[in-house]
Amino acid sequence: QPFFVSRLEGVVDVAMSRNHACGLTEIGGVWCWGDGRLGALGVEAERALDPVLVDIPPAVAVDVWDDRTCALTSDGHRNL
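Request: output the structure for the sequence above.
Response:
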């Protein structure tokens, strides 16, 4: 069921799985929310109803799977 997600200004892309989602901002920030078990959110949280900013270098792409997230940074590294 759709619901409003706060704090996502400047998001240009969203990747979603059935368990969690991440948004990529125009300046390379990655915000994630949902089920964080197994580290899928990139932060130490089992669950985040509101988006949390992931502490990685600026990203150019983000993708999610059921229990994983991958962000490609502008220097070509994969994080999360």
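The chain is about 0% helix and 50% strand.
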